[in-house]
Amino acid sequence: MSWCRLLRRAVAARPCRALVAAAGSPRRLSASRTSRAFAKELFLGTIAKKEVFPFPEVNQDELNEINQFVGPIEKFFTEEVDSRKIDQEGKIPKETLEKLKRLGLFGMQVPEEYGGLGLSNTMYARLGEIVSLDGSIAVTLAAHQAIGLKGLILAGTEEQKAKYLPKLASGEHIAAFCLTEPASGSDAASIQARAILSEDKKYYLLSGSKVWITNGGLAHIFTVFAKTTVVDSDSSVKDKITAFIVERDFGGVTNGKPEDKLGICGSNTCEVHFENTRVPVENVLGEVGGGFKVAMNVLNSGRFSMGSAVAGMLKKLIEMTAEYACTRKQFNRNLSEFGLIQEKFALMAQKAYVMESMAYLTAGMLDQPGSPDCSIEAAMVKVFSSEGAWQCVSEALQILGGTGYMKGYPYERMLRDSRILLIFEGTNEILRMYIALTGLQHAGHILTARINELKRGNVTTVLETIGRRLRDSLGRTVNLGLTGKLGAVHPSVADSARKLEENVYYFGRTVETLLLRFGKTIVEEQMVLKRVANILINLYGMTAVLSRASRSMRVGLRNHDHEVLLANIFCAEAYSQNLFTLSQLDKYSPENLDEQIKKVSQQVLERRAYICAHPLDQTS
Questions:
Q1: Which DSSP string corresponds to 357-408?
Q2: Which helix (H) or strand (E) holds 226?
Q3: Structure confidence at residue 457 (pLDDT)
């Protein structure tokens, strides 16, 4: 499988909460620097400090504007949203949807000129913290604007935007994103839906079925992807994907019954069918044959807000669970006095702090001029926050014991709702491949000449490499400029910053070794790629908390010492994890059990069963 194909598959799996193109003119944060990708530079063993230090800030006017939205929305979710009823009945009440529309939540990132709120990514993330208090509502709103109408903002003509966005922003019309099909999930390029151009070239006849479409039964407007026949510049005829804006009123559009899901039960998820639906040529979104690019742009970079959304949910969970732990007595002591219970609260606080820091650092970068490519950073936020959510909700249930397992309380619903986070917006497995391959590809372009010199046995390059590795083995002092008088971090986190610098340096050396060892065949080494991604996620998390804690110390935010504590704990743990993972990437490392793991899985999959003899069996 080629680099290009797997990268395409990886990106294709990524429904998102997305970046608004510059043409959409969202309100951006006050900023002067132009950002470029940060995460890719880590693959070269360097830290692009200007991209992440100091931590992004909003000015007072912007903060006041955000808070004007926060108050009414928080009040609504606290006092009027009945999440238990939504979960039990499997739908969001009509009056709740109407109130969401009146609050402007269906047009959060739609530009103001089309009737939306035109929020920056940072403001969108802040509101996401509140909306996430009900999983079904959060998913409904995200499917509508983060993917459903996003193609219009990014690739729509002025006529298309003027025609559709106002009613979508108001919520009069609800949008859905139709890409996934029964036989194509992560591999979006394999879709089978087809659109055939009419003889008079005035419309397309669209036919095909889409599955697991959020808002599929509610939507009036669909962004649909289908194969079309395209004549290339060399006169060859090919099938290429084209994106279409489809109205339910075009006819031939039907949907199945709502799926009976494990969690997010109040969101509407169903199959959507198109049977000879007449779509005017004016409703092609982007270029004919350019649908894959539209899909990738829609799905690009926006996962960052999952971090703030999950952090919002975890903050509420911590409050509820802490109240229980501080009042529930066992053995004549409050649960909160026991070490293993305290450990769980420290874990939840740490996870919330890290994902929140990663999300708002990414949002700040996205809000810089030039709409930088932060797709790796956003993917890392998604992976870390989704897995953190699942782990923390599970730990909360452990604290609550039987109470957490009962349906009369919200905890088991939060557990069920959290599970989908590891699957949608791109499975975490696919995203890890994307994170690793995108960064390795960047490093490969830059290191190609050096790697070729090593392969040819250039004496100077070989001796230089041997000397560097010898110095590394003797324990070199790494200084990437984070500490000291002119350093980027506050002295209270200097030790953690040095851990980050060391990890980054040796990660860069390891990347070079992997590229030399595998070349382009690394695309097939998924266990290697998983480790590369895991290290990078830790490095980005370390960077985010160091930047945030440093700012909090310098400006004197309340409880800044608590932030320093959380940052130092996370960095110490991440540092140790990275050292072990780096050792596993060594070809001859005893910690690397990849071949044994592959052998076990092959034997199981060959027989499609657990193959060990039963412990009570005997030989005849």
A1: HHHHHHHHHHTSTT----HHHHHHHHHHHHHHHHHHHHHHHHHHTHHHHSTT
A2: strand 221-231
A3: 74
- Across residues 90-97, what is the average pLDDT? 98
Residue 132 · residue 93 · CB < 8 Å? no
**Among 90, 102, 105, residue whose Cα is nearest residue 144:** 105
Cα 545 from Cα 571, distance rounded (Å): 8
User: Across-strand partners of 330?
Assistant: 333
Q: Where are the alpha helices (DSSP H) in 105-256?
A: 121-131, 135-142, 150-155, 158-170
Strand 221-231 versus strand 175-178 pairing type: parallel
**Cβ atoms of 247 and 207 closer than 8 Å:** no
Query: b/e map of 43-65 (b: 16 or more CB within 10 Å)?
Result: bbbebbbebbbbbbebeeebeeb
Q: How would residue 31 be classed by pLDDT, with cut points 50, 70 and 90?
A: very low
Do the beta carbons of residue 366 and residue 121 sit within 8 Å? yes
Q: Given CA atoms 331, 336, 341, 342 in this order, what sign does their dihedral have? A: negative
Angle among Cα 344, 348, 353 to the nearest 5 degrees reads: 145
Q: Mean pLDDT in the chain?
A: 91
Q: How far apart are CA 447 and CA 587, in angstroms?
A: 20
Q: Active-site residue 425, yes or no?
A: yes
Helix axes 375-400, 411-419, angle to 10 degrees: 150
The predicted-structure confidence for 158-215, as pLDDT tens digits, reads as follows 999 999 999 999 999 999 999 999 988 778 788 999 999 999 999 999 999 999 999 9
Give the separation between CA 596 and CA 600, rounded to whole angstroms: 6
pTM of the prediction? 0.90
Residue 472, pLDDT score: 64
Residue 246, strand partner residues: 222
CB atoms within 10 A of CB 592: 17
Given 3-state DSSP classes, what are the helix, strand and coil percentages for the chain, each rounded to the nearest 5? Answer: 60, 10, 30
* Rg for the chain, CA atoms, rounded: 25
CA separation for the pair 604, 162 (Å, rounded): 56
Measure CA 365 to chain center.
15
98-126: per-residue pLDDT in tens? 999 999 999 999 999 999 999 999 999 99
129, 271, 412, 425: the catalytic one is 425
State the average pLDDT over residues 455-466: 68
Within 59-149, where are the H helices? 60-79, 83-89, 94-102, 121-131, 135-142
In 3D, which of 326, 331, 348 has the Cα closest to residue 397? 348
Given pLDDT bands bounded at 50, 70 and 90, which one contains residue 251?
Answer: very high
Pairwise CA distance, residues 318 & 566, whole Å: 15
Res 5 pLDDT > 50: no
